[in-house]
Amino acid sequence: MMRVHCAILACIVLASSADVRAHGLAAAFVSIETADDHEADVLIKLPRVEGNTPGLSVRFADGCEELTAPTKITRNDGVIERWAIRCERPLTGMEIGLLGFNTILGEALVEFRSPNTHGWSTVVRRGLPTTRLGALSSPGLDSNAGYLPLGIEHILSGFDHVFFVLALLLIVWRTRSPYGRRAVFKTMLATITAFTVGHSVTLAAATLGLVRLAPAPTELVIALSVLLLAVELARDDRSTLTMRFPWIVALAFGLLHGFGFAGALAEIGLPPEGIAAPLLLFNLGVEVGQIIIVLVAASAIGVASSIAGRRHLVAGRGSFFDRAIIYGIGTLTAYWCFERSLGWILG
């Protein structure tokens, strides 16, 4: 009966997977640059998502008119639109709105440059699609601070990264819990640190243009990394490298996940000058999101184990909850592997 329940759950996950994206909400990049606070060059960079490019437009205040018609440049990674405007009132302090957000395109990084603000940026989201250009940030915040929440949101809404961290946590809990919570904490700290080092190295290298990997095979291998951990959990063979040394696997696959993070950062866009701060803040956001995943998952495991009165309710081989998670992750990532393989082959 246990296997029947797990199979049913797997089918439900597979049936709903068309609406569940491996990566979170896609992000656009909007740049508004003015020399006199009245005439400005506007640029929108839209990412390509699953072969399609979502639409986005900027709504300026009354009294603004286009000086040039929008020009569109289509690239492999998306579309770039440029045009010029002139406004009767100053652009600094003007409220603008972004139209076109949906379940796929959920946010945009807006950058504004003027004689008064030099470099200013903020993140505009679907729930509140307006911002005031050049609005003062909280004291002490860098103008690139918007990259921090983008990093957090990318890993929290990217289910492949979430599942990878969750599977690592389950492996550590399953193999180290018999030796006490201190052993679990020490191994989890080493594993997450290894994953952090791995993806930080390749994120920086790819963003700086030192190393490049094609997006399609990279995304496929990321999905395969999650599937591997799900298979290891289902087999429960404590003698494998993954079970004995999870930090080695975390480091190796962390290098691959870093290329995925770099791809997301490239879609968002970086300022033309000074990419060090945005890169650092985005990576810091990824780390914050990663810590949130670990804390929430570990708390859920601890609470479930306490309620049941036995340590291995969640991490034990025979528990329904444990198998439901493993089969769910495995089924969904197998679907992503199939989907990404087809996308790579068909171009």
Strand % is 15-25%
Question: What are the low-pLDDT stretches, counting only 5+ consecutive residues below 50?
Answer: 1-20, 311-318
Structural class: alpha+beta
Secondary-structure element order, N to C = HEEEEEEEEEEHHHHHHHH
Q: What is the makeup of the main sheet?
A: 7 strands, mixed
Instruction: Determine Rg (CA atoms, Å).
Output: 23 Å
Count of alpha/pi helices: 9
What percentage of residues falls in helices of 4 or more residues? 40-55%
Number of strands: 10
Provide the number of structural domains. Answer: 2
Shape, principal axes of CA atoms:
elongated
Alpha-carbon distance between the two ends: 42 Å
Mean pLDDT: 80
Structural notes for this entry:
The protein has 347 residues and is α+β, with helices and mostly antiparallel strands. It has two domains: 2-21 and 158-346; 29-141, Immunoglobulin-like (Sandwich). The protein is 52% helix and 18% strand. Strands 1, 2, 4, 5, 6, 8 and 9 form a seven-stranded mixed β-sheet that branches. A hairpin with a 4-residue loop joins strand 1 (26-34) and strand 2 (39-47). It is elongated.
